[in-house]
What we know:
Layout: H1 2-18, E1 32-33, E2 39-43, H2 48-53, H3 60-71, E3 80-83, E4 90-92, E5 99-101, H4 106-123, E6 127-131, H5 133-139, H6 147-150, E7 155-157, E8 160-165, H7 170-173, H8 178-196
Parallel strand pairs: 2-3, 2-6, 6-8
Antiparallel strand pairs: 1-3, 4-5, 7-8
Amino acid sequence: xxxKLADFYREYMEEMQILGLSDDSDSFVYGHGDKESxxxxxxxAPGAEEVKAGVPFVGAxxxxxxDRLEAGGITRQEIFVTNAIKYRLSEVNPKTGxxxxxxxxxxxVRANSRWLRMxxxxxxxxxxxxxxxxxxxxxLPESNYQMGDVHGQKLDTDMGxxxxxxxxxxxxxxxxxxxxxxxDFDNMIKVVKTILGK
Length: 198
């Protein structure tokens, strides 16, 4: 599995560079955790903190996620964590001249969709948790799911059971979502613990 994933990530980076979506090989961050796990958690894309550490979800949203997982009795080592887009989405801030994060474009989503699905085919999880709109769209490109309609639900798909959640960063910016996120997360934890036999 390690060699297959390493080859997969190398081919992925080459294609993204050919497409001109990222020409910085240092901006790529790949999946991390138990590659044999039945549970995969998918975020959107790495930010500056993730690029620096080389691990997905290590910034403020990552700490929020880790704390909530551990409070539910699940460690990061028991699951596999990856991003739908594995290069930093960045642009130059015209005011400061420094890089800042940018939203995913339709081109980013299109280019990454088949690669995310191939990654899931390699890992073969039973449950996939998507955090935010972008990973849900990349994983299920033909669907027109809206987060407001499907968050916290168990969706039966050709990739296995998918549970879409709001992104942990969303509750930092929109406090009104906190209770919704908490309830969805608690229900997801119950499903994951059953899958992990806990």
